[in-house]
């Protein structure tokens, strides 16, 4: 799902000027990239733990707690970025910053869910989650390009796709009985 990480930039490049595209990529790099790195760290850290000890309730709590803590970190980072925007040259656009903040917090929580899905998810659950995401990405990308929507609409659509992926993983992992590979079956196969 590499397209999931780049569809916003691909779409904006097709419908907006190089200057608008560059400003957006710069804002994403400054505001969101630190949280993409944190998301990978959280996922790796929890994957190790989930291999040894896994519970649906634990995943639910871990994912929601990570989103909440990440949201607080996003606020602190945004304040720091706002205070240093003259030095960094970062343009302040409240709507864009809020959407990128939501995206950052959701991605951090998704890191937890992705680790859990990789450890305990069935092929079917992964297939359906990826299908939901692919359909959302296609609908989002084609619609945005055809309608030549403003930057904020592209970002809002991109955040919505990430939220849908988070929700799909969350539901499959915490609510669905058939999503889980049992630890015993995994141990017997190894």
Classification by helices and strands: mainly alpha
Give me the Rg, rounded: 18 Å
Share of β-strand residues: under 5%
Distance from first to last alpha carbon? 27 Å
Proportion of residues in helical segments: over 70%
Global shape: globular
Low-confidence stretches: 183-190
Strand tally is 0
Number of DSSP helical runs: 9
How would you characterize the largest beta sheet?
none
Write the element-wise H/E pattern from the N-terminal end onward: HHHHHHHHH
Mean pLDDT: 89
Throw out a few tags for this protein:
190 residues, mainly alpha, disordered C terminus
Task: Characterize the structure shown.
- By secondary structure, this protein is mainly alpha-helical.
- The chain is built from nine helices and no strands.
- Helix 1 packs parallel to helix 7 (123-147).
- The radius of gyration is 18 Å and the shape is globular.
- The two termini are 27 Å apart.
- Residues 183-190 have low confidence and may be disordered.
Element layout with pairings:
Elements: H1 7-15, H2 18-31, H3 33-52, H4 56-83, H5 85-88, H6 94-120, H7 123-147, H8 151-174, H9 183-189
What is this entry, summarized?
The chain has 190 residues and is mainly alpha-helical. It has helices spanning 7-15, 18-31, 33-52, 56-83, 85-88, 94-120, 123-147, 151-174, 183-189.
